[in-house]
Design a protein that fits this description.
This protein has about 70 residues and is mainly alpha-helical. It has helices at about 10-15, 20-30, 30-40, 45-55, 60-65; strands spanning about 5, 65. Helix 2 (about 20-30) crosses helix 3 (about 30-40). The radius of gyration is 11 Å and the shape is globular.
Length: about 70
C-alpha cells in the first residue's frame, strides 16, 4: 500500500476569511505555485514549510497534514 501526505490547507484558507493562495504563500515565504501543488497533493512540503503553515494557522501540524 502506498502512503501519501494529504492536507487541509484549502479548508483552513477558507476558514481564515477566504484567504488566497498568494496570501498564504507570502505569509510562509513560498510561491503561489508551491501552495497550489501542496493543496493538490502533487508536492510534499519541507518540514520547515509544513511547520510555518501550521504556525500561521495556529493549529497543530496534524491538523494541516495527514500521512495516509
Amino acid at each position: 500500500m502506498t502512503k501519501k501526505i494529504s492536507n487541509n490547507i484549502r479548508r483552513l484558507r477558507f476558514d481564515n476569511e477566504e484567504m488566497t493562495q498568494q496570501m498564504l504563500a507570502d505569509a510562509v515565504g513560498v510561491s503561489r505555485q508551491t501552495i497550489v501543488a501542496i493543496e493538490k497533493d502533487k508536492y510534499s512540503p519541507s518540514l520547515e514549510v509544513a511547520f510555518k503553515i501550521s504556525v500561521y494557522f495556529n493549529v497543530p501540524l496534524d491538523a494541516v497534514f495527514q500521512y495516509l
